[in-house]
Amino acid sequence: MKDLRKKKLFVVMDVLCVLVAALPFIIMTIVFKPYQRGIYCDDESIKYPLRPDTITHGMLAAVTISCTVIIISSGEAYLVYSKRIYSNSDFNQYVAALYKVVGTFLFGAAVSQSLTDLAKFTIGRPRPNFMSVCSPKVCTGYMQVINCTGRPQDVTESRLSFYSGHSSFGMYCMLFLALYVQARLAAKWARLLRPTIQFFLVAFAVYVGYTRVSDYKHHWSDVLVGLLQGALVAVLNVRLVSDFFKKRPPRCVRSDAADSEEPERKPSLQIADSEHSNHYNYHHSPGTV
After folding, report:
1. Which of 57, 218, 279, 284 is catalytic?
2. pTM here?
3. Residue 218 falls in the annotated catalytic set
4. Which of 11, 13, 141, 169 has the fewest CB within 10 Å, making it most exposed?
């Protein structure tokens, strides 16, 4: 009973950590308005026409979510079924494995979005199509306060150029999945399949960044920083939070099962590694890397 209560506490702690990491993103989106940066009315870099999104928010969400669900759910199902990984949890092995990977993914996504919105709202860089969206009545020289005639929601959105949220979120999701595939799809028959999947995942994220420039929604530097930020968060999340590439201690042996073993068999103790162990450690079989 005490162990069960402790594991429930761990789950609550995980959920709270994800919510806390997402707080800046939630607060900025609901409460804050972007910094009102002044502009030069003759600045050609913000006079591009208004164009529709090649990759809309809904399309980006649909692709990233569907890829995440398909790759992670099928990958964990195969590994649990083939007994290549298992959890020390008392819950269903597949649910425990899925919970850990999805929790790690969501935590990194929350961090990435929070960092993106912190930059967007505090810097307030005008988009390349700012003048087309704003449609000011009068604009001469340098103006700190601009009397825009466009829709207030669109004008607010047009001040969120740096850095690209599409690029950072797309790169985070796709690079996280590429690293997941690198760690999980270690079979010999996947020697070329693995890099092929990784190529298309990362290529989609880069393509999303290209479209943000061609649609005049972001400057090229916004996209570059967004791609780098998403990649950095994905690598740090996989390296420091997940256990994709970490060696794990062996599975715990229950006391009742140990008592039923033959007397001459030497008992095995779980290796306690304070640096890497956590409440849902995995064991990798010797055949996998």
Report:
1. 218
2. 0.83
3. yes
4. 141
